[in-house]
Design brief:
By secondary structure, this protein is an alpha+beta fold. The protein is built from five helices and twelve strands. It has two domains: 1-33; 34-263, 4-Layer Sandwich (Phosphatase 2c, domain 1). Strand 4 and strand 5 form a beta hairpin. It is globular and about 75 Å long.
Length: 265
């Protein structure tokens, strides 16, 4: 009996090590999907934050440098967490690389990607996304959205937040979806802020104790901080606010991505 228990213990330890090794490998593979830094574009500063709630997750962002003044930006959030969401994220990245060219209408690009993902994803997963093309020569951004949280333009000159709102349903869930493209002027010192819902959705006692309005306050309060400090201070305010309500150390339960781009003078 003792020998059987000992053998079972050895087997469990080997199985546990195998699972941990596979998760570590999956983590390394997923981190390879995330750009280590934004492309160098004259007249633009960037700062990003990426933290999955587990070893792997379903949040994703990327940059596409089409030329010296044209930059594509993607942020996406795959439903669910863990390995299955991470696998879908890899498929999503490949789909954007195949279709996103910086010239075609963004509605049409999202329509193509939706069709491709609907026909490919068989796990029930879907995703939200925001797709933008930033033109630093014309000082404009074209954008489209698939049910993703509205990004903001933080207009630091007059301390206001502009929501980049467009219509559009999530990708990969329905065989046909409609999307909308809009365009807006950008100004010197503007900050474009993209994020996933883990930034403002924090569940406690069956309620969201944070929300977008509180997030807006954090962003406006630190609008004049240098870009790197801006992200750091917003996240610190968020953490303090949450812990003041739950009265214990906050443990992240959802993936979080923040992408910020500042237009230089």
């Amino acid at each position: 009996m003792n020998i059987e228990l000992e053998q079972e213990g050895v087997w469990l330890k080997k199985s546990y090590k195998y699972i941990i090794d596979e998760l570590n490998l999956a983590h390394e593979q997923q981190m390879a999907l995330i750009p280590p830094s934004a492309p160098s574009v004259k007249g633009l500063q960037t700062a990003c934050y990426y933290k999955p709630s587990m070893k792997v997750g379903g949040d994703y962002y990327d940059f596409f440098k089409f030329n010296d003044h044209l930059l594509g930006i993607v942020i996406a959030d795959v439903s669910g967490h863990g390995l299955s969401a991470a696998q879908v994220t890899a498929m999503v990245k490949m789909s954007f690389y195949h279709h996103f060219n910086g010239e075609e209408n963004l509605e049409q690009i999202l329509t193509k990607i939706n069709t491709e993902l609907f026909n490919t994803i068989k796990t029930g997963h879907f995703l939200t996304t925001f797709l933008g093309v930033l033109d630093l020569k014309k000082r404009k951004i074209r954008y489209s959205r698939a049910a993703h949280p509205y990004p903001f333009i933080l207009r630091r000159a007059n301390k206001t937040l502009i929501e980049l709102d467009t219509k559009g349903m999530m990708l990969g869930k329905f065989p046909q979806s409609q999307f909308e493209q809009k365009e807006i002027d950008i100004k010197s010192k503007d900050r474009i802020i993209l994020y996933t819902d883990g930034l403002y959705e924090v569940a406690y006692q069956k309620k969201n104790i944070l929300g977008r309005e509180k997030l807006k306050n954090f962003l406006l309060n630190h609008g004049h901080d240098p870009l790197e400090k801006f992200l750091e201070n917003v996240l610190e305010d968020r953490k303090k606010y949450i812990e003041n309500i739950i009265h214990e150390e906050y443990v992240q339960e959802d993936d979080i991505v923040i992408v910020t781009l500042e237009i230089e003078s």
